[in-house]
Amino acid sequence: xxxxxxxxLSLPVTLGQPASISCRSSQSLVYSDGNTYLTWxxxxxxxxxxxxxxxxxxxxxxVPDRFSGSGSxxxxxxxxxxxxxxxxxxxxxxxxxxxxPYTFGQGTKLEIK
Amino acid sequence: EVQLVESxxxxxxxxxxxxxxxxxxxxxxxxxxMTWVRRAPGKGLEWVAIIKPDGSEKYYVDSVKGxxxxxxxxxxxxxxxxxxxxxAEDTAVYYCARDWELGGYRYTRLDxxxxxxxxxxxx
Lengths: 113, 123
Known about the structure:
Chain A is mostly beta strands. Chain A has strands at about 5, 10-15, 20-25, 40-45, 50-55, 60, 65-70, 75-80, 90-95, 105, 110.
């Protein structure tokens, strides 16, 4: 199975400041069709997961443009340009290139300093 | 509006069984693969199982193979997870999620999730 490794696991951020989460996979996530099936999810306290970014850098409808995804191969990043209070929660990367199973990173807990 | 509503969770003793349901609405259910994902207390998300639109293909994470069975009733727009031989480590909130659409052009993998149902395995 593909292992997804996130860092940091805890991310205290001051309101209005940027934040960055790294996600590395144990093998390339480029599929034979040329797509890279790397997805980012946000899970706010007490809520269900919400998809933010799919195929590395495509933002879902309704997701603020302060969220952006980048990367390639085995190395990916989620960036928040200016953190707001509503961004508190746990962020997960997930790969769906080599499945089954889909595999998630351990999660990064974002909190406000 | 796409809606997924899970039910069936509860407290069960180790070795017991439980059947989770997920009622889907707002989309053409029988066009989509469907997935179960869980989150154990204090842990991260874990993919559990997936089923093809016609039910002909099913895949599971190794830790539940032989104990859990995913199924669906397309006439009732419903997804199920039959959980047998439950263990303490199966304690988690279980979510159903819409997965990819057969022949679809939009990327719908895990784009909608239910609110989750809590399964507690304890004596």
